[in-house]
Specification:
four-stranded mixed beta sheet, 4 strands, single chain, alpha/beta, about 170 residues
Length: about 170
């Protein structure tokens, strides 16, 4: 069973159900990943999602990645990827898969640039962050990046979100 805990800071529109968005996006990411066995395992697999400020994400990025700037999403895995398959076979217990942190200003700016609602882009970032918790990476090579993007597309399509990587041709 996947359990998603979410918290939205004051920068995030309180009229939007950020916790439900996080549950839907992270759950879809796990279901469409190569670790989908976690969904039906006897284990409670917890993911924490925090919707926060650019300043907080910048501080985390500086402290943990030595990059003193805000970024759209950070993921902090708590389980080594090679252990994920073995924990899925557990009959009971709990495991914290990890934490995902989204920066409001960066997310909102990227959403505006892509001409999509902030909620749509935030869903994509939660899916992306969840896949990092599951051991996916896009910085180790083209093949890994394409595999990760394929899972993102499937997970997003399952929750009604169009391909964020689609390229549209501009007519001149």
């Amino acid at each position: 069973m996947i359990q998603i805990e979410a918290d939205a800071g004051e920068d995030w529109d309180s009229r939007i159900g950020w916790a439900e968005l996080a549950r839907e996006a992270a759950g879809s990411a796990v279901r469409h990943s190569d670790q989908s066995d976690l969904v039906d395992s006897g284990l409670i697999v917890e993911i924490s999602v925090k919707f926060t400020s650019d300043d907080e994400v910048q501080a985390l990025n500086a402290a943990y990645r030595n990059k003193d700037k805000a970024t759209n999403v950070l993921s902090f895995p708590m389980v080594e990827p090679d252990l994920l398959a073995s924990i899925a076979s557990a009959d009971s217990g709990e495991v914290l898969l990890g934490d995902i942190v989204l920066a409001h200003g960066v997310c909102a700016a990227e959403a505006a640039e892509k001409d999509v609602p902030v909620q749509t882009h935030a869903s994509h970032l939660v899916v992306h962050g969840t896949l990092h918790l599951l051991g996916y990476d896009h910085e180790e090579g083209e093949e890994e990046a394409e595999a990760m993007e394929a899972v993102e597309r499937a997970a997003l399509a399952a929750i009604g979100i169009s391909d964020p990587y689609a390229v549209t041709e501009v007519q001149t």
